[in-house]
Amino acid sequence: MRLGVRDQDGLPPPSMGEAVALRCRSLLKRYGEVTAVDGLDLEVVRGECFGLLGPNGAGKTTTVEILEGILPPDRGVAEVLGCRWGTGGDRALRQRLGIQLQEARFSEKLTVRETVRLFRSFYRSGRDVETVIRMVGLEEKATARVGRLSGGQKQRLALSCSLVGNPEVLFLDEPTTGLDPQARFRVWEIIEELKRTGVTALMTTHYMEEAARLCDRVAIMDRGRIIALGRPAELVDSLGAEQVIEFRVSGDLDPGLLAGLPGVRGVSGRDGEISLAVLRVAETLPSLMTEIESLGLELHRLATHQATLEDVFLRLTGRSLREG
Amino acid sequence: MRLRRNQHGRGPRAARALNPLVELTLARVREFGREPEAIFWVFVFPVLLALALGIAFRDQPPEKLRIGVDDRLAEAEGIVAILSRSESLKPLLLAPGPILQGLRTGDLVLGIGPAEEDLPRGESIPAGARDREEASPPHAYSFLYDAGRPEGRLGRLIVEEALQRGWGRQDAVRIREKKITQAGWRYIDFLIPGLIGLNLMASGMWGIGFNVVDARTKKLLKLLTATPMRRSHFLLGFMLSRLVFLILEVAALVGFGWLVFGVKVHGSLPALAAVLLLGAVTFAGLGVLVAARPRTIEAVSGWMNFVMLPMWLFSGSFFATSRFPDALQPFIKLLPLTALNDALRAVMNEGLPLYACWSEVGVLLAWGLLSFAVALKIFRWQ
């Protein structure tokens, strides 16, 4: 794959002067009573892959669509590549962006190649149709109708349509939602390949694994605000724990009782599901078992894993990402 | 636009300059062409309709009027022989009962009975006949018919004429008939332009309305507006694709009419093309207008029917608009389909030049421009 080559004639290389690709200041967007984005500040640097992580309804899509120039904010400023929407240069700016929307579906009657060609025709310069089809691994499906593609293939087609203009900034809104693990993995590989081209990417996801793997930096969003920002590893480190013990017991257990157990750095839990952030499982587990036993409770489920962004979210909000 | 390079996408430098308007139009043409139902309703159905109606209303020799001759008349056989000579009469020898029955059901238009018989209703013995009754040989009959029916009155005239002549009256005037049944005057000649008009309306509005709303529900419209695509190109692409299908639709109907029924285009082809083009663009504009806001296919279907139903009824696709009451005429004249049908018939059947249908052209232009302008203003892209 040759992704790094800007393949158009005579286009100057992207200016290096502006280091910030995307910038939001005090962004606010309301839908009736609901405040979708609540005074959001954000900066995405050129060349980085930035992830907005959060449950459904956290305001990720609204934020992205404001930056994409699809939605006007109620208040605040959104800058893309140093430009603001609605100041006269919108179409020129769109030439430099690649956009994939969460729920957009393509015409089922057209083939993959026809669809990519159509999108290619909107851009003055960009990647060759066949190149893009190859980049997303749809060569064998080039002549297939979109209606016959699997979910993963459709998602890759959406990706290819966002790439035809050889964008400087790429917006990917939940690029793997609804895909099976294999198809998701395939999309990840493509995005990783894209990152090597130096494109700036803003992606949203509610899969912490996805954010951890693909993103250079992550902003964890909840209820229209950013509640944590940093490199995925830093965020996990902020838990002060390496591992997590999750368990469920019969009856009531005051989570506070567990804070004093050896190696415990954090306790969160709800509805009998308790999560302990610990330094080492081996250190904490025996005393945990003793504690449960002495309280006369019955252990129903026990699992341990390496600490992830999911645990960060749980610690910050008391809710899991999937609960929304 | 850059010069086209004839490379076939090998390597990153082979990007050809694709024209967005061409690609959008092509996409629309492909989408439509790959919808078997659409092909049927746009191309096959109108032809089948033309075939069915063309056969049902084909020009037959005028139906003969059925005359009942009372078999009790002494001269019944002679009367039948005389009436049989007329090409518009079919005399039947019947008993009085069946004659009355036939008159009641409308199977017979007139009954001939003995002059003296007491007639239950519709008695009619011409005064002149009664006068001669006394002077000349006793050819005296009574006519039984319903004077309220045009066929009854017509039958009465023809029968009397035939009998008078048959029994020896000399004509004072000699008349030579020249009957007109030539192409351009038949029902099928009237019908084909009407079907073309109807088809342009239905396929234009459905083809655009349905696809626009479909793209909106799929959020494809939203995605497209996030690209550098010009919004006007998107809508123009629909219009241009309509023109591609216009050629096919018209070719199907005109070709069919010509091959099967000998329907000819009497006017100039450029004038016809101009009217068709205008009609297609007008209904494309209306289609875009109807599709400008609805978010669901159900909603747009309702609006489509709301807009098209009056034109199905009033615009004279199947029969002349003059049959509607005078009070409705100004409204009917303002409907775009009426204007299109009238202009098509003026050009196709009467061979008139384009400027002769300036008012129809004006109506079409007004509808097309207005609806397109309003549609662009209120169009919902997301």
Question: Can you tell me about this structure?
Answer:
The complex is a heterodimer of chains A (324) and B (382). Chain A is an alpha/beta fold and 324 residues long. Chain A is 29% helix and 28% strand. Chain A folds into two domains: 20-235, Rossmann fold (3-Layer(aba) Sandwich); 240-306, Alpha-Beta Plaits (2-Layer Sandwich). Chain A has helices at 60-67, 90-94, 112-121, 129-135, 151-163, 181-195, 208-214, 232-237, 281-294, 309-317, and strands spanning 20-31, 34-45, 49-53, 75-80, 83-84, 97-100, 169-173, 200-205, 217-222, 225-230, 243-249, 264-270, 273-278, 299-306. In chain A, α5 (151-163) runs parallel beside α6 (181-195). Chain B has two domains: 22-57 and 183-378, no CATH class; 65-166, D-Maltodextrin-Binding Protein, domain 2 (3-Layer(aba) Sandwich), CATH 3.40.190. Helix content of chain B is 60%, strand content 6%. Chain B has a five-stranded mixed beta sheet, with helices on both faces. Chain B is elongated. The chains are: A alpha/beta (324), B alpha/beta (382). Chain A binds chain B through residues 2, 5, 7-9, 68-70, 91-92, 94-95, 97, 99, 101, 103-107, 109-110, 114, 117-131, 145, 161, 165, and chain B through 2, 9-15, 18-20, 22-24, 26-27, 30-31, 34-35, 215, 218-220, 222-223, 225-230, 382.
Shape annotation of chain A: elongated
Low-pLDDT stretches of chain A are 1-17
Q: Any idea what the CATH superfamily of the largest domain in chain A is called? A: P-loop containing nucleotide triphosphate hydrolases
SSE run of chain A? EEEHEEHEHHHEHEHEEHEEEHEH
Radius of gyration of chain B: 31 Å
Number of domains of chain A: 2
- Number of helices, counting only DSSP H or I runs of 4 residues or more of chain A: 10
Quaternary structure annotation: heterodimer
Structural class of chain A: alpha/beta
CATH architecture field of the largest domain in chain A = 3-Layer(aba) Sandwich
CATH structural class of the largest domain in chain A = Alpha Beta
Largest sheet of chain B: 5 strands, mixed
